[in-house]
Structure of DUF2259 domain-containing protein:
Amino acid sequence: MRAALLACLAAMAMPAAASTGDAADLALLGFSADGAIFAFEEHGIQDGSGFPYANRYYIDTGKDAFLPGSPVRVRLDDEGQTVRAARDAARQKGETIITDAELAENPGYTAAMNAVAELSADPFRVVANSSPAFARPFDPMEFRIEEFAARPGATFCPEPEQIKGFRLTSVDSRPGGVTKVLHEDKDVPASRGCPLGYRIGAVQTYFPEGKSGIAMIVVSVRSFGFEGPDYRWLAVATTLPD
C-alpha cells in the first residue's frame, strides 16, 4: 500500500509535458437581465476515473458571492456516460436558481479570452476595452493577478510548500485613478483543492439598463491532479466605473 501511495504521489508531481491531467472546458452562460446574477460552467472528463462531470457556478455580482444552491456539481460515476449527460443534469439543477433561457438572452460581452493552452499572452495581466463601443470613458480596463505562497485548506496536499493563493487587482490608468484589490486570499479554501498557480482566463462584461457596468474576471486554477495538472475555474465580480 505504501508503494502504491508513493507511486501515486510521484505521478501527481510529474510535469504537465509528461502526463495528461484534466483541463475543464469553460462555458460562460450569461447574466440575469438586471445583472445581479452571473453564471458559468466547467465540464470535462475527470482524470483517473474517466467519469464525466459538469460544475455550474451562480454568482451574486453585487456581493461577489455564490447564490444559495451554488455551486452545482454533477459527476456521473460511469465511464459509459457522456459529458453532455453531465451537463444536462447540471443544467436541470441550476435552472432552479435562474433559467438558461434568461442567461442566453443576456450573454454579455467577452472582452478578453486567454485559453489554458495559450502561450503568447501574458497570463497575469489583461488590458481590454469593455465593449466594442470604444468611446466609453472608462476604457481600457486592466486587471492583474499575482501568486503567493499560501496555507492549503485541503486536508492533504502532496507538496504543501508549493500551494499558491492569489491577489487580483484592477488598475485605473486615468489621471487620479487608483489600483484596487478585488480579491486576496488569506488561506486557500478547501474547495479549491491544492492549487499550484493561476492565470486570467477571460473577462466578461455586461451593461444592465440604468446600472453601472459589470466585469467578471474568470481565473483558471492549476492544481495537483491524479494523472497530471488539473485546471478549474473561478470568477471575481467587480463594478466598472461610470
Confidence is low (pLDDT under 50) at residues 1-19.
